[in-house]
Design a protein that fits this description.
This protein is an alpha+beta fold. The protein has three helices and seven strands, in the order H-E-E-E-E-H-E-H-E-E. Strands 1-2-7-5-6 form a five-stranded mixed β-sheet. A two-stranded antiparallel ribbon has the order 3-4. The chain starts with a helix and ends with a strand.
Length: about 160
């Protein structure tokens, strides 16, 4: 029988992808005590980068928000692995970090990262509320327009 979070994902019509393999010399997550530190995730789904490029040139604000949402879905896929398949072990989303590849004039980084924040609250409810940062970057791995990392507390 699926858990509460799995049921919520189904209600939201979210199907978690296979968690992506690392693209370098790092691991996708590390558990220490009750904390899970998740490596940054981009909007790479089934080997295809969604909305690559620079926000404000190649990618609209709305598409960048969707990209942040996809990053958050990839984070949840990694988190599920870290929780041995049981997302009901989540106690709290502690922190999200959002990186946005935007033009020097682009100033709406927080609006972009809201795509990830809104998803966490939508999936985990109050346990999804978190501290965060949203910053600009001149380039991101694999040409991504957005990358998001996270820290979760689990039982």
């Amino acid at each position: 029988m699926p858990g509460i979070i799995e049921q919520k994902l189904t209600e939201l019509e979210i199907s978690l992808p296979e968690a992506a393999a690392p693209q370098g010399n790092y691991v996708p997550w590390v558990k220490t005590g009750n904390l899970v530190f998740l490596s940054g995730q981009v909007a790479l789904i089934d080997g295809t980068m969604h909305f690559p490029g620079t926000v404000g040139v190649d990618v609209s604000l709305e598409d960048a928000q969707q990209t942040a949402r996809l990053c958050a879905i990839n984070l949840i896929a990694q988190l599920k692995n870290a929780c041995d398949g049981d997302l009901d072990r989540v106690v709290q989303c502690v922190k999200l970090g959002g990186f946005v590849n935007g033009t020097p004039e682009f100033k709406d980084h927080p609006k972009v990262v809201n795509g990830a924040s809104d998803l966490m609250v939508g999936v985990f409810g109050d346990k999804g509320r978190h501290a965060r940062f949203a910053v600009g970057a001149s380039a991101l791995p694999l040409g991504a327009s957005v990358e998001v990392d996270a820290v979760f507390e689990i039982a």
